[in-house]
Amino acid sequence: MGEFTFLYRGGSDLSTRSPEERQKTMEKWMAWFKDMGAKGLVKDPGHPLEAGGKLVRGKPIAVSDGPFAEAKDLIGGYTLIEASDLAHAAEIAKGCPILEGGGAVEVRPVMKMNM
Hints:
Layout: E1 2-9, H1 19-38, E2 42-44, E3 53-57, E4 62-66, E5 75-83, H2 86-93, E6 104-109
Antiparallel strand pairs: 1-5, 1-6, 2-5, 3-4
């Protein structure tokens, strides 16, 4: 078993939906998380991320407003899961409700650090 991060990218904007549509979408997310949790796959449910932030980079170090990317590429949240391998993690990601709204789930293995 290994740890994998799901990075949620894009998807339809919930703020443009009716309260009923938002509620249905949230129910799908909660059911998906509940199912993964019941299977012991969720290490950390993570959190949604705010749209704005700061970007720190370069030499000399510069701080600017950001991130600046197309909306479809913005990371809207993350979850840490446990799966047998990358293929298993990708299979789990296929159930993510963000896919219904045109979004994507980036599945990344978490590198073990020896400290």
